[in-house]
UniProtKB/TrEMBL annotation:
Additional remark text: The active site is a redox-active disulfide bond.
Main location (coarse class): cytoplasm
Active site positions, chain numbering: 454 (proton acceptor)
Enzyme category, top tier: oxidoreductase
Cofactor field: FAD
Domain (Pyridine nucleotide-disulphide oxidoreductase dimerisation) ranges: 356-465
Similarity comment: family membership: Belongs to the class-I pyridine nucleotide-disulfide oxidoreductase family.
One GO location term (cellular component): cytoplasm
PANTHER family tied to this protein: DIHYDROLIPOYL DEHYDROGENASE (PTHR22912:SF224), DISULFIDE OXIDOREDUCTASE (PTHR22912)
Residues annotated as domain FAD/NAD(P)-binding: 5-337
Protein name, entry field: Dihydrolipoyl dehydrogenase
Classification via Pfam families: Pyr_redox_2, Pyr_redox_dim
GO MF, one annotated term: dihydrolipoyl dehydrogenase (NADH) activity
Amino acid sequence: MSQAFDVVVIGAGPGGYIAAIRAAQLGFKVACIDEWKNAAGGPAPGGTCTNVGCIPSKALLQSSEHFDHANHHFAEHGISTGAVKMDVAKMVGRKDTVVKQNNDGILYLFKKNKVTFFHGRGSFAQANAEGYDILVKGDKEETIKATNVIVATGSNARALPGADFDETQILSNDGALRIGAVPKKLGLIGAGVIGLEMGSVWRRLGSEVTVLEGLPTFLGAVDQQIAKEAKKAFDKQGLKIEMGVKVGEIKTSKKGVSVAYTTAKGEEVKLDVDKLIVSIGRVPNTDGLNAEGVKLKLDERGAIVVDDECRTNLKGVWAVGDVVRGPMLAHKAEEEGVAVAERIAGQHGHVNFNTIPWVIYTSPEIAWVGRTEEQLKADGVAYKAGTFPFLANGRARALGDTTGMVKFLADATTDEILGVHIVGPMASELISEAVVAMEFKASAEDIARICHAHPSLSEATKEAALAVDKRTLNF
């Protein structure tokens, strides 16, 4: 006889596993299905984020940053190291260990919260009187019953037409995280988050890195004052970024990969590299879900169509994360997962898209929340701006990292914070204060009046808030 559950979650990425845990906390009988496998063939919950995305990329970024500091910055602190070498295999092994720790942590959380885990691919079999039959294909095939279903199947890397991923020479984010030796020349198509982060890793380790971007503007979604500051830093580091290019034929051979492209000026160029990482976005993952079998509505991109509360066109079926509309961010998926579990319980789950932070974990880090100056101008919103450079921050000087600034944008009349944008050290941590402030509809004056610890990088946040009213104290 089939097992029956109040809630079945398909996918154990950030949206799925969090939704399952929250539903269990609310008293539901919950199952979560996920097919990711580790090297030994065992379960590896956590989705793209944990296995081939957020977590492993940050592990490599951290290792490569240590290497870069040892080679280029330790001497100024009086530290002599001699010749510094990087053991790439050990670096990748550490990354794999970090990933496994996260996989195991999720399995522990399932056990702690009494979530039944099924290792395999979940799909809709059919609707029934009480809800849905869900087929699980793993080591064995079985069917379970669900009153409510939460689809959290994530997304896949988008391939460039005519250049399919072989994960040996033409790499997605997956293959980019498994490069076994430092390539002499590395090419990247796409100057977004993945392109800049992976480019930074291998540039620090000695690769000659060229990033090709089709759009004419660098980091077009980022406040352009911040983006230009970041671009100056990347140029200084030796990361070659070409904007406005049109990529043509891509050929592979025993020697490597050849990319033909046209520059923004119309020049025909051929780029020869050892490996090519393609990071031109991601597509919703609905393959194998049997959406058509139960008439689950998808849009033209293949994403599951949902309303503002993540309800699909089917009663009792919800969807969250990368597989639906909105930014493809792990923390956005988590918030939707919690909200949906609470809505199933009759509560009022809430996700505010206007206060979802964005982060690029390069050096300098880039983080922002709310609207950019360009968006405010386009919307005709009267605003005030204030900036403060890390060059004038005592903690940043002590760290030896004074690149970048904090920027506040506030309503010209009410002083309500409309956006905060940071490029510089620990921007990923500093942005949280801005998120909290905006959730509570704080004014720039509110942040300016709050005591910040000295010396700390967060003082730059306070000073930028002061700058909105043209009264910085340290610049």
